[in-house]
Write a structure and sequence with these properties.
Blueprint lengths: L8 H22 L12 E3 L5 E3 L7 E7 L4 H17 L4 E7 L5 H7 L8 E3 L4 H5 L7 E5 L5 E6 L5 H14 L1
Parallel strand pairs: 3-4, 4-5
Antiparallel strand pairs: 1-2, 3-6, 6-7
């Protein structure tokens, strides 16, 4: 067995730097989504063709909903999100639906009969969902006017809309 003290200086330096970078990456990944911290920035193209960049939305409350076509609760939740969009958009609230599937045709088929008017985005590489530590479908993140993550909801069951409404109303009053 080779001990650290018996390694060549160049290897020690390389190993030390590699470990340091690994620890920094892990620390950054673990802390990537904390309540009260800045929301990780991203830009995605919407179905309508416009590029949406989160940091350009400062001054608005953004409800980011990560969903998939195979998710039953997602189908139930979509009309709820549309109601929030309709009710609160004039008060500076936007809803973004982010599909997490690598092949977005299933997502497009899913949306065909839902008649949604809020922006739908596609995260085919799952880069954004990884930054937001999406582990459950759907996952809803609410970002305040200053770009800070204020709420994170995993999953959806009927009645969650009351939690969403309470959170949105609180942020509108701030």
């Amino acid at each position: 067995m080779i001990t650290f003290s018996k390694m060549k200086p160049q290897i020690k330096t390389l190993l030390t730097k590699s470990l340091l970078v690994s620890f920094l990456f892990i620390a950054t990944s673990v802390n990537a989504l904390e309540i009260g911290q800045p929301a990780p920035d991203f830009t995605l193209k919407s179905m309508a063709g416009a590029n949406l960049k989160l940091t350009e939305q400062r001054g608005k409350i953004i409800v980011i909903n990560f969903w998939a076509s195979w998710c039953g609760p997602c189908r139930t939740e979509m009309p709820v999100l549309q109601k929030f969009y309709d009710k609160y958009q004039d008060l500076g609230v936007s809803v973004w639906g982010v599909n997490v599937e690598q092949e977005n045709q299933a997502g497009r088929d899913f949306l065909a009969d839902l008649n949604l008017s809020f922006p739908i985005l596609f995260d085919a590489s799952n880069t954004i969902s990884a930054m937001y530590q999406v582990e459950a479908m759907p996952t809803t993140i609410i970002v305040d006017r200053d770009g800070l993550v204020r709420y994170a909801f995993k999953g959806y069951k009927p009645g969650y809309e009351k939690k969403y409404a309470k959170a949105i109303k609180k942020l509108i009053r701030e």
